[in-house]
């Protein structure tokens, strides 16, 4: 099975990030372009295994064929979703939206499970450095709120939601569930016009439902894997 890859590399190719829009939520990175592309094979397999765990039956991708559709070079901010890729401009069908929202629900389940399994208190940073699990959860919630608001219009209560998650410290589960319920309600209510929305912005990524859901899925899955790696 062939997968189109969209790459962005930092100064002198010292780091490369790879997006796989044909499998929303799937991304990979590496210190070099070649390593990032090779790491994408494992990322694709891992993402497909995620779908199988939740009852989907994706086709067997083997042998995996990788095709570099585009490569942005000399990017300074890697992994922040600022890369403009052609598929993001394609309209999103109701069926695609429904499927990706299911994936988002499964991804949140796995994020919470990985956070609950941490050996350290959620508010304690790991000895090796990096954000605490509580900070990661707050970051994921704040980011997806931003993705939705910037594309579909502001969701009310952003500051209250963020404050509730932060105040919960080691027991953020109720606040997280409330945040996600608000986000999902808005996404499930997307109109046909919103699914096909395309707002071009000079020097910035376009605003589209497809790009919004791609980034939401990619970002949460990135932090699912980060928390799992600490176990």
Brief characterization of the structure:
With 231 residues, this protein is α+β, with helices and mostly antiparallel strands. The chain has helices at residues 33-53, 94-116, 133-152, 158-168, 173-188, 192-195, 209-229; strands spanning 2-9, 16-19, 27-30, 65-72, 199-201, 204-207.
Task: Please explain how this structure is put together.
With 231 residues, this protein is of the alpha+beta class. It folds into two domains: 2-72, 2-Layer Sandwich (Double Stranded RNA Binding Domain), CATH 3.30.160; 86-229, Four Helix Bundle (Hemerythrin (Met), subunit A). It is 50% helix and 13% strand. The protein has a four-stranded mixed β-sheet with strand order 3-2-1-4, with helices on one face. A two-stranded antiparallel sheet has the order 5-6. Helix 3 (133-152) packs parallel to helix 5 (173-188) and helix 3 (133-152) runs antiparallel to helix 7 (209-229).
């Amino acid at each position: 099975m062939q997968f189109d890859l969209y790459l962005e590399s930092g100064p002198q190719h010292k780091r490369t990030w790879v997006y796989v829009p044909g499998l929303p939520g799937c991304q990979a990175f590496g210190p070099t372009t070649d390593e990032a592309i090779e790491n994408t094979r494992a990322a694709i397999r891992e993402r497909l295994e995620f779908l199988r765990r939740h009852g989907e039956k994706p086709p067997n991708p083997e042998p995996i064929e990788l095709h570099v559709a585009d490569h942005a070079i000399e990017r300074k901010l890697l992994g922040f979703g600022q890369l403009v890729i052609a598929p993001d401009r394609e309209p999103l069908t109701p069926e695609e939206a429904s499927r990706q929202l299911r994936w988002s629900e499964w991804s949140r389940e796995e994020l919470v499970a990985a956070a609950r399994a941490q050996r350290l208190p959620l508010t304690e940073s790991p000895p090796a450095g990096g954000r605490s699990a509580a900070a990661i959860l707050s970051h994921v919630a704040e980011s997806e709120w931003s993705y939705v608001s910037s594309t579909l219009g502001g969701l009310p209560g952003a500051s209250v939601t963020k404050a509730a998650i932060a105040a919960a410290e080691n027991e953020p589960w109720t606040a997280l569930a409330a945040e996600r319920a608000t986000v999902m309600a808005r996404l499930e209510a997307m109109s046909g016009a919103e699914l096909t929305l395309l707002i071009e912005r000079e020097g910035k990524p376009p605003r589209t439902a497809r790009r919004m859901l791609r980034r939401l899925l990619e970002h949460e899955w990135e932090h699912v894997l980060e928390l799992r790696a600490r176990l």
